[in-house]
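Notebook entry, structure prediction.
Reason for the run: the old model in the group folder had no record of what sequence produced it. Starting over properly, with the input documented here first.
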Amino acid sequence: MSKIKVPITIPYIWGQVFIKGGRPSHSFSRGGEDCGVWSVIFIGEWLEVIVYQLSGIFVLQRKINQNACRKITSNLLVSIFYGVESQKIRLNRSKNGFNCIFLVLNIRIHSFSTLMMFKDQVVIITGGCSGIGRAAAFRFAQEGAKLFIADLSEKAGDVLMEELEKVGADAAFARIDVTDAEDVERMVTDCIQRFGGIHVLVNSAGVLGPRARTERYPAEDFKKVMEINVFGLFNCMQAVLPHFLAKKNGNIVNLASVAGLGGFAGHVGYSASKHAVVGMTRTAALEYAKHGIRINAVCPSFTMTPMLENAMTNDDTNYLDALQNAIPMKRFGKPEEIADAIIYAASSAASFMTGHTLVMDGGLMVA
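New structure, fully documented this time:
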């Protein structure tokens, strides 16, 4: 039976403890334990407690007196736990008042810290109204970021702004065509005027294009895919980099694909565009690393987004079944899973990572 002793600090209200539901944040593992959902919220002053792990049962114990109740300790590590499956609270009362609190939690920890990773940072997300870009918007909002969402669809932008407002996010939307360099310059200018700066650029705007063998692939469609996926991303990087250079800091996360690391039969335009994204990511990362600017790419495989759903509508089911069966995990990815990878790439947790292609493919590339 293992025993881990970790000093933490949690706030409490005298004689009362509240358990409240929450949403999982970033995940990690410690000692082989996985992570999960829920929050433990205490309100009031701070108490120092000790955590003992006994076969997955966590016991928080602290001797309390009135003087200790007024003392604010300085060793805060964790104040909200994600993963509470059941809880038991017992207050032992003495003639001097409550002198001991036992909080027993049958839990799986999901988050090591309640600190918001992007508190007050400004994040631009292109193609932010659907799919992976939309999922990234909510994840950045959860981490305290201020959001500037760029997309072609004003209707989708209005809907997203309402949804973000409901979760307390500070967000703005602009209708932007990433293939128009002047439009993109306006995006950057408007974002700086609204929020005072930019910390992260997420290039998520992109299209799949039709499915056809190379000899039958329409030249106009090839050109359109390249204009959006390649020139659009180029415009966005070129517009934001001078701002990052001026402050010697910044992060760019480009949404590439495993199609940019290998072939993708039937999608010569998409595969070519994503190879270009990977090449631009690596080249720019080399150019700007010494200036404090990190540039990385996230490379998902087939993900359940409107792009894939449209393919499901237009293509035969046998083809889509074949795509899913090609993934060792035997399922498509989820936008939220790719959004978590974007969050990681842009965060201080990846501070020594640049020019990297972060693959999220359910094992496809190693199959």
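Summary: The first helix runs from residue 66 to 70.
The old model has been moved to the deprecated folder.
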